[in-house]
Design a protein that fits this description.
The chain is an alpha+beta fold. The protein folds into 2 domains: about 80 residues, Alpha-Beta Plaits; about 100 residues, Alpha-Beta Plaits. The chain is built from 7 helices and 8 strands; from the N terminus they run βαββαβααβαββαβα. The strands form 2 sheets. The chain has a 4-stranded antiparallel sheet with strand order 2-3-1-4. It has a 4-stranded antiparallel sheet with strand order 6-7-5-8.
Length: about 180
């Protein structure tokens, strides 16, 4: 069973294209086992020993060298992924009222109180926000392109990040980590 999932930022956007087979091969070349990619959006599960910081540096350096561009990595272990899936930041009524999909924003580190306050101040009735650990949960009222949430200001407050739908996170957990949401 895999021990980690790497959420990669900026994969298969614009001129940056890599097939899952190629991405899996890059992770295997770094010495990781049990490598699998989920969808073509930079979700890679794998098994490895070592600290999160060491593994993150190893992946970022390896992918940067192989691909020729920086690839920010947001690494989570099985227990962390389980906590993300289990967390219910918004009540059932709010979820039902929204036409948008619950988003999970993975952060590099747990934000300081001042950063949390700055980020949460951007919330509105149309864009609900909640922070837990190293994740920001975002419930938009509708489609992401319709949202007025200032993503640049959010990144300025919380730092570099990458976003996945909760559905994608739940599917990864269920398929590779025997977890469910």
């Amino acid at each position: 069973m895999p021990s980690h999932v790497a959420f990669l930022r900026g994969m298969n956007l614009g001129g940056r294209r890599i097939k899952n087979e190629e991405l899996r091969a890059e992770f295997e070349a770094l010495g990781f086992a049990g490598v699998a990619c989920f969808r073509a959006s930079g979700n890679v599960v794998f098994s490895a020993k070592g600290s999160e910081a060491k593994l993150t540096r190893q992946i970022e350096a390896g992918l940067g060298k192989a691909l020729g561009y920086k690839v920010p990595v947001f690494l989570r272990g099985a227990a962390e992924l389980q906590a993300v899936v289990a967390h219910k930041p918004f009540n059932a009524k709010a979820l039902k009222a929204s036409k948008g999909k619950l988003q999970v924003t993975f952060l590099e580190q747990k934000p300081k109180a001042s950063a949390c306050k700055r980020a949460l101040a951007l919330a509105s009735d149309d864009d609900r926000l909640a922070l837990e650990g190293r994740e920001l949960y975002w419930l938009p009222k509708g489609g992401l392109s319709d949202s007025e949430l200032d993503l640049k200001e959010l990144a300025a407050a919380l730092g570099q990040n990458t976003v996945r739908t909760m559905g994608t996170v739940e599917q990864i957990a269920a398929k590779y980590f025997e977890l469910s949401g």
